[in-house]
């Protein structure tokens, strides 16, 4: 077989060009014509190539039979399709096609069993163009095809009929792998031990929860006590004293009444305290007197008397005690 023939078979292209005419005894027809339409059939095998004129179609069960039809339509007609005129039988099947390349249409069939064969003829159909021309279609017949399929087994090998597929045999069960069981058991035992160690630890941590933060009035009263016991007034540091007293009062108001007192000026705080706060009007008046006096000390460098400074702490303590919730819980002793 030539290299060009092998390459053509690999690419799926019809590699032959020589026409195969009907043998002299009229057993097979490879050319047909009628009404100006012609159809030519070229036969080849995948192993031996084109079948020459007068040579029987011989192939093995490992070969394929390649059929290429070249139809030529007369004026006013067009080629429509190629079809088998009968069943291929149980020992043949279509492997590919029909596939049209240019003016050629190729079919590939393959056998299953050795022995003489007769394939049904191919019909080549032409239809009028346009379809409403009122002319009948032209149908040409090529075949039937006769030949022999040879076995690939050595000569003398007895022929055996095809047998049905045997039922599936279940494989034996694999031997039991104890590794997985041991690993799962070890993991489970480790989990139990870990849980036993974590339960007491979690219980101890729950018992050691930090105490709640002190209430706002407790923080303010404690800060006032520290301020009174300081030596700021004795040293004549009135401005730091009033600054600390003002900070204690503003922080208490923020924590107790949710007013942003530390971040506002005196006027802004008093305006909010009068408009939308639970502080009583009388308390607002007293707070205004203190805050404005504190502003004079802090910003105008005014020096109050020691008695005035002491009354300032008493005023703040009185305000904190009167605004303390009646059921405020006391902080637990450390």
**SS-based class:** alpha+beta
Shape: elongated
Q: State the end-to-end CA separation.
A: 106 Å
Extract low-pLDDT stretches.
1-28, 328-334
Q: Give average pLDDT, whole number.
A: 78
CATH class group of the largest domain: Mainly Beta
What is the beta-strand fraction?
15-25%
Q: How large, in whole angstroms, is the Cα Rg? A: 56 Å
What summary fits the major beta sheet?
6 strands, antiparallel
CATH fold-level name of the largest domain: Immunoglobulin-like
Number of helical segments with 4 or more residues? 7
How many individual β-strands?
Answer: 12
**Residues in helix, %:** 25-40%
The H/E string reads HEEEEEEEEEEEEHHHHHH
Count of individual domains: 2
Brief characterization of the structure:
This protein is an alpha+beta fold and 334 residues long. The protein is built from 7 helices and 12 strands.
What features would you describe in this structure?
With 334 residues, this protein is α+β, with helices and mostly antiparallel strands. The chain contains 7 helices and 12 strands. It has helices at 3-11, 178-207, 216-228, 238-257, 266-275, 281-299, 306-322, and strands at 31-34, 37-45, 49-50, 57-60, 65-72, 77-84, 92-101, 104-111, 115-119, 122-128, 138-142, 145-150. The strands form 3 sheets. Strands 1, 2, 3, 5, 7 and 8 form a 6-stranded antiparallel beta sheet that branches. The protein has a 3-stranded mixed beta sheet with strand order 4-12-9, with no helix packed on it. Strands 6-10-11 form a 3-stranded antiparallel beta sheet, with no helix packed on it. Helix 4 runs antiparallel to helix 6 (281-299) and helix 6 packs antiparallel against helix 7 (306-322). It is elongated and about 140 Å long.
């Amino acid at each position: 077989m030539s290299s060009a023939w092998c390459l053509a078979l690999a690419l799926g292209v019809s590699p032959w060009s020589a026409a195969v005419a009907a043998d002299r005894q009229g057993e097979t027809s490879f050319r047909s014509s009628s009404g100006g339409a012609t159809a030519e059939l070229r036969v080849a095998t995948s192993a031996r190539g084109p079948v020459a004129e007068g040579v029987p179609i011989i192939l093995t069960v490992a070969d394929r039979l390649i059929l290429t039809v070249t139809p030529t339509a007369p004026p006013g007609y067009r080629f429509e399709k190629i079809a088998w005129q009968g069943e291929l039988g149980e020992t043949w099947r279509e492997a590919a096609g029909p596939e049209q390349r240019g003016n050629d249409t190729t079919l590939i069939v393959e056998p299953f069993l050795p022995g003489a064969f007769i394939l049904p003829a191919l019909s080549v159909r032409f239809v009028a163009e346009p379809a409403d021309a009122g002319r009948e279609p032209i149908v040409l017949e090529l075949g039937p095809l006769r030949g022999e399929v040879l076995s690939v087994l050595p000569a003398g090998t007895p022929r055996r009929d095809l047998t049905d597929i045997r039922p599936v045999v279940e494989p034996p069960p694999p031997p039991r792998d104890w590794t997985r069981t041991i690993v799962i058991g070890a993991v489970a035992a480790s989990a139990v031990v870990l849980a036993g160690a974590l339960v007491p630890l979690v219980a101890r941590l729950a018992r050691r929860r930090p105490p709640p933060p002190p209430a706002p009035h407790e923080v303010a009263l404690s800060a006032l006590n520290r301020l009174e016991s300081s030596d700021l007034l004795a040293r004549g540091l009135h401005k730091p004293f009033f600054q600390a007293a003002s900070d204690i009062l503003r922080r208490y108001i923020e924590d107790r009444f949710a007013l942003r007192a530390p971040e506002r000026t005196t006027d802004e705080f008093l305006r909010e305290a009068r408009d939308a706060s639970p502080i009583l009007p009388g308390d607002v008046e007293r707070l205004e007197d203190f805050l404005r006096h504190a502003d004079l000390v802090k910003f105008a460098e005014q020096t109050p008397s020691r008695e005035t400074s002491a009354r300032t702490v008493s005023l703040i303590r009185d305000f904190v005690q009167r605004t303390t919730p009646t059921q405020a819980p006391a902080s637990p002793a450390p």
